[in-house]
Amino acid sequence: MTTVTLPTVSPPPGRYAVAPGRSFAELTAYYGPLATLRRRVTLTGASLTVPESESESESASVSEAMSQAAGARPVFRFDLAGTMKASLLSEHVEPLADGRHLQLMADLDVRGVAFPVLLRLRVVRCVEGRLLVVGSARLPYRLLRRATGFRLPWSRPATRLRLLLAAEFA
Question: Model's pTM, two decimal places?
Answer without folding.
Answer: 0.81
